[in-house]
């Protein structure tokens, strides 16, 4: 099924082929394309999600607003819009591509992430309607609140989110300041 075929890529995000989602996450993982979306409200707060307990990897961990994969034949930004609707019941007018990066992270014997991930920012003007199969909980946090939570309990957050947030704060502060309230 095309819905389960993810896009295999190299370290530069060059398309190499396709593989089903489960196989992409087995063992050490097979490098595939992914995305992470960070949605901010008009008060400059970031919407975080706690992954559902039924997720294969990093179940019940806190993460950015939405993260997933484009499917075979699907553009990355189109996939991001699709998953925002599927997971949170929301649409946004615009997503801004901030940067891309490659990472790997293992989750014990359950599998691994091995992704080239595209990071997007956007503005959310409505409250989400959570798909409980995907998300356990959501919460809005200011940059200061998030920084405090990450410092106090970093193990409660997904590895890709921690890496993305550090890169955003260190290398993309100008873009962050457009969306977030910075103290």
Describe the structure.
Strands 6-3-8-7 form a 4-stranded mixed beta sheet, sandwiched between helices. The protein has a 3-stranded antiparallel beta sheet with strand order 5-4-9. It is built from 5 helices and 9 strands. The model has no long low-confidence stretch (mean pLDDT 93). The protein is globular, with a radius of gyration of 15 Å. A hairpin with a 5-residue loop joins β1 (5-9) and β2 (15-20). α4 (159-171) crosses α5. The protein is α+β, with helices and mostly antiparallel strands and 183 residues long. It has one domain: Nucleoside Triphosphate Pyrophosphohydrolase. The protein is 26% helix and 34% strand.
Summed up:
The protein is α+β, with helices and mostly antiparallel strands. It has helices spanning 21-25, 76-88, 143-152, 159-171, 173-179, and strands at 5-9, 15-20, 32-40, 46-51, 62-63, 66-68, 95-106, 112-123, 135-141.
What keyword list fits this structure?
183 residues, alpha+beta, Nucleoside Triphosphate Pyrophosphohydrolase, four-stranded mixed β-sheet, three-stranded antiparallel β-sheet, 5 helices, 26% helix, 34% strand
């Amino acid at each position: 099924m095309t819905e389960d075929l993810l896009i295999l890529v190299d370290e530069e995000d060059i398309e190499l082929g396709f593989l089903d989602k489960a196989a992409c996450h087995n063992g050490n993982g097979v490098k595939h394309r992914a995305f992470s979306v960070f949605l901010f409200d008009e008060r400059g707060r970031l919407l975080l999600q706690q992954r559902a307990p039924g997720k294969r990897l990093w179940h019940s961990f806190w993460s950015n607003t939405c993260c997933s994969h484009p499917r075979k034949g699907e553009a990355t930004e189109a996939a991001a819009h699709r998953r925002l609707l599927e997971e949170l019941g929301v649409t946004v007018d615009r997503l801004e591509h901030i940067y891309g990066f490659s990472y790997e992270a293992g989750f014990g014997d359950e599998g691994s992430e091995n992704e080239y991930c595209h990071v997007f920012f956007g503005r959310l003007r409505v409250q989400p309607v959570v798909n409980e199969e995907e998300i356990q909980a959501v919460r809005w946090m200011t940059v200061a609140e998030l920084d405090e939570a990450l410092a106090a309990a970093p193990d409660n957050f997904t590895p890709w989110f921690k890496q993305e947030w550090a890169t955003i704060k260190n290398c993309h502060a100008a873009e962050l300041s457009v969306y977030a309230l910075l103290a």
